[in-house]
Amino acid sequence: MIYFYSGAFNPLTKAHQKIMDDLVNKMDLKQDQLIIGITSYQDKEYSYSDQIRYDMVYNYMFNKYVPLIEKQIFVKWQVLYQYTRTYEYLHKLFPNDEICIVVGEDEWKDLNDKKWEHSDKLLNEYKFEIIPRTDDISSTKVRELLNNNVDYSQLEKYITKEVYDIIKK
């Protein structure tokens, strides 16, 4: 099974990290893998470049899961750029794989309300893992705080120091 978790990660928050960790804990490490898609659509503006958003996610996964190899724990994961909408992307890259798309409650509602391109195909062809929103962490809130030039102590509830340092570079 491929767990596909896609988003802007604009920036990567502790809520995103918790979702990734929960997915890894759910995976059968002998056969499943986690694919994280960094969305980069031409019709959308991002506060941070594709490279910065990629670096935030990749560094988190690398620092968290590569050291486990010493303990003989192998987590299969990849971070990829996603330049096309979800259906087109999955259909091209993984035409024959069993895929579970990971979405938040708000995205699940939008998908069922047919606000996504290819909603019917997605709903008919793939499994879904719906992640409930359990806290008040949002990338929008983090961007607002960063735009006000707050220091890290005011952001540590939302993002890690590593993410803060990448953003500030």
Features:
169 residues; alpha/beta; five-stranded parallel β-sheet; 18% strand; globular
What is this structure's SSE topology?
Blueprint (H helix, E strand, L loop, with lengths): L1 E6 L6 H13 L6 E7 L10 H16 L11 E6 L3 H8 L5 E6 H8 L6 H7 L1 E5 L7 H9 L13 H8 L1
Parallel strand pairs: 1-2, 1-4, 2-3, 4-5
Helix pairs in contact: 2-7
Oligomeric state: single chain
- Amino- and carboxy-terminal Cα gap: 37 Å
Q: What is the residue-mean pLDDT, rounded to a whole number?
A: 93
Order of helices and strands: EHEHEHEHHEHH
Number of strands: 5
> Which spans of ≥5 residues are poorly predicted at pLDDT below 50?
none
How would you describe this protein?
- This protein is of the alpha/beta class and 169 residues long.
- It is built from seven helices and five strands.
- It has helices at residues 14-26, 50-65, 86-93, 105-112, 119-125, 139-147, 161-168, and strands at 2-7, 33-39, 77-82, 99-104, 127-131.
- A five-stranded parallel β-sheet has the order 3-2-1-4-5, with helices on both faces.
- Strand 2, helix 2 (50-65) and strand 3 (77-82) form a beta-alpha-beta unit.
- Helix 2 packs antiparallel against helix 7.
Could you write a compact summary of the structure shown?
With 169 residues, the chain is α/β, with parallel strands linked by helices. The protein has helices at 14-26, 50-65, 86-93, 105-112, 119-125, 139-147, 161-168; strands spanning 2-7, 33-39, 77-82, 99-104, 127-131. The protein contains 7 helices and 5 strands; from the N terminus they run βαβαβαβααβαα.
